[in-house]
Amino acid sequence: MEWNQIPLGPLQTNCYVLSNENKACLIFDPGEESAKLSSFLKQKGLKPLAIVLTHAHFDHIGAVDDIREEFGIPVYIHEKEAEWLPDPALNGSHLFKVGKLIKAKPADHIITGEKELSIGEFTFTIFETPGHSPGSISLYFKDAELVVAGDALFNGSIGRTDLPGGNHQQLLDSIHAKLLTLPEETEVLPGHGPATTVGQEMDSNPFLNGF
């Protein structure tokens, strides 16, 4: 499996494209600049199967409708943020006023609980990792030794918790219970900034020391 990190939009939110040898791919958090993302997919000859959202803040969902419609693919989101997609007051686009208000169409599939999910040839484990937002999830691909962590865990930092529904202690609990229990070599693909590993964050992340 191959992954590509594509920073999109004014906040340079990381969109990830995970693809296999058959050119099938999953798209995670298409935050903005749908034309840029579409061009990348076509240049690589990739065949998108679905969009999976780690959470529904505006900077992670801005290109959802364009990409969904262009490639005719479904969207997955956690049940606790299903109502956020069409509501700028919930997804935060009315608050930050970065670009347009985001009013995406409802998701096609609602994720409930922690489970193993298969989409086409891809199988991964869903971890609920709230704290940055109530419906934040992380997607663990055991065979590929990587986890798409959204805005839960960053390289040397953690997600902000001062937005509606955020909870600092809950985020720390999520990180320690769900992410730091993964093998230390697991690559962590965060919503912003460079990738890291579980082991690196265990050793050097100042927000996790002394927990």
Notes on the structure:
This protein is α/β, with parallel strands linked by helices. A six-stranded mixed beta sheet has the order 1-2-3-4-5-6, covered by helices on one side. Strands 7-8-9-10-13-14 form a six-stranded mixed beta sheet. Strands 11-12 form a two-stranded antiparallel sheet. It contains six helices and 14 strands. It has helices at 34-43, 64-71, 88-91, 93-96, 168-179, 198-204, and strands at residues 2-8, 13-19, 24-28, 47-52, 75-78, 109-111, 116-119, 122-128, 137-141, 146-150, 153-154, 157-158, 187-190, 196-197. It has a single domain, classed as Ribonuclease Z/Hydroxyacylglutathione hydrolase-like (Metallo-beta-lactamase, Chain A, 4-Layer Sandwich). Strand 3, helix 1 (34-43) and strand 4 (47-52) form a beta-alpha-beta unit. The protein is globular.
Brief synopsis:
The chain has 211 residues and is of the alpha/beta class. It has helices at residues 34-43, 64-71, 88-91, 93-96, 168-179, 198-204, and strands spanning 2-8, 13-19, 24-28, 47-52, 75-78, 109-111, 116-119, 122-128, 137-141, 146-150, 153-154, 157-158, 187-190, 196-197.
Helices, by number, come to: 6
The first-to-last residue Cα distance is 34 Å
- What is the chains' assembly state? single chain
Q: What's the alpha carbon Rg, rounded to whole Å?
A: 16 Å
The CATH class is: Alpha Beta
- The CATH architecture comes to 4-Layer Sandwich
User: What is the share of helical residues?
Assistant: 10-25%
GO molecular function, one term: metal ion binding
Keywords: Hydrolase, Metal-binding, Zinc
Protein name: Glyoxylase-like metal-dependent hydrolase (Beta-lactamase superfamily II)
Cofactor: Zn(2+)
